[in-house]
Amino acid sequence: MQIHQLSDTNLSSKDLADFLYAIDNDFSPPLSERVKLKSSSGSIHAYSEKLTSQGEVLVCISSDTICGALGFYCNDEKNTTSFISILGVLPNSRGQGIAKALMEKYLAFIASKKYLISKVDTWKDNQAAIHLYTRLGYTVLNEEGFSIKLQKHIPTSTQPHT
Length: 162
Ligand SMILES: CC(C)(COP(=O)(O)OP(=O)(O)OC[C@H]1O[C@@H](n2cnc3c(N)ncnc32)[C@H](O)[C@@H]1OP(=O)(O)O)[C@@H](O)C(=O)NCCC(=O)NCCS
Fold this sequence. Notes:
By secondary structure, this protein is α+β, with helices and mostly antiparallel strands. It has helices spanning 13-22, 31-38, 44-54, 98-112, 127-135, and strands at 3-5, 56-62, 65-76, 81-89, 117-123, 139-144, 147-153. It has five helices and seven strands.
């Protein structure tokens, strides 16, 4: 399966927003509610635009549409800490290793930037995501209410020599 940076494809933040609307209710709380909580003018479209302009987005494409995406920030140069903002796969594409492939590409990307820490938040009963993250070496940083924060130290041996 092919994973691309959204910016290397002919797809736009609008296509990413359409994908996110399709999986809106698979998040707890739904993504549309989360983005509203973060900003009064928050919408999935505004979120998608912010992510594509200030962050990085990796996508898995099937039949010219996005079937999986991972959006992250890799701009905290001081702490060399990257944060995964969103990870999702369309329901009918799940269980085929797409999320794992997106995560592996993401981890290689941040290692190439010499980032040392990756952080991600999810909710406590999200077994699929917690399984995926812990299999990839993430450990629980803290739990608060329904939320669970995980972190992974990026081994320096995976970082390219300069
Ligand atoms: C979580 C999610 C991204 C996984 O996507 P996916 O493409 O189906 O995952 P993969 O096929 O790459 O599977 C990765 C690992 O998770 C495991 N997994 C997948 N779905 C699972 C489930 N429902 N329960 C337990 N483990 C699961 C797989 O077995 C695999 O583990 P393995 O490497 O030990 O075999 C997808 O279910 C999703 O989009 N969920 C809704 C949004 C979400 O929860 N996002 C992440 C949290 S913010």
